[in-house]
Amino acid sequence: MRAAVFVNGKIAAAADAVIPVFDHGFLYGEGVYETLRSYGGKPAHFGRHMRRLRRSASLMALPVPFTDAELAAEVQATMAAFDAPGERYIRMLLTRGVGDLTYDPAACPTPSLVIIVKAFPEPPEEQFRGGVSIVVVGVRRNHPDALNPRIKSNNLLNNALAMQEAIRRGAAEALMLNQAGVVTECAQSNFFMVSDATLVTAPLDEGLLPGITREHVLELAAGLGIPAAERAFRAADLAGASEAFITSTTREVMPVVRIDDRTVGGGVPGPVTRRLLDAYRAGVRQED
Q: I need a surface site. Which of 56, 57, 86, 192 has the fewest CB within 10 A?
């Protein structure tokens, strides 16, 4: 793996970047993260990502002892240290830090900051033209009273198990239900469908991560005059979808043309999906 990695003030190549084994991010998964990508060499939606990082950290009483300007400077320095053409994939991780084997936060006086920069793996353009297949998996999304999905946590076992099932079934994504059987989100993205000429996505209260791209797509839909609603729906309701797509930082607006064994929209990306993808790509370079 070729990457430049910032660890608590030092930038090194991936093979030389280390963090102590007593870091609570490693021991207990105590930490939060954000995934960004660059357009034209600039991290997109930086301000939105930092607001979500701070919100996630606050939900687990994790201090963020850096200003946005300081974090931006460290990201830029790490990007500059990665000498390769093309756009960048950026992952920022903030952990509880190094401390004794205890759950007491007081044992970790200083959070650890890690920034990973590597080449951005562009999704194949044929996926945007032809769409992808996803499956509804048996792994349920974490209950908000157990591990709140609004925390973009380094502990991704729930997502990993869901994605492993999807991979076994030959799908590009895992669509997850909550404890009540309501559709929430995918293992690595948010989910939208078009039903009765309305763009529909699950409300945050059903137990899902407030995606940056999800938020932006809802804003774009409003600007384009596309009716949109955040409302609960179940797996059976997917049969009524005329279009579907997933959204994420790395996948932008990715058409979905098959869910389980059912073809969506005749097996081709629909007009609402295409409009939103075009609008997203047109505006993301100017968006903070």
A: 86
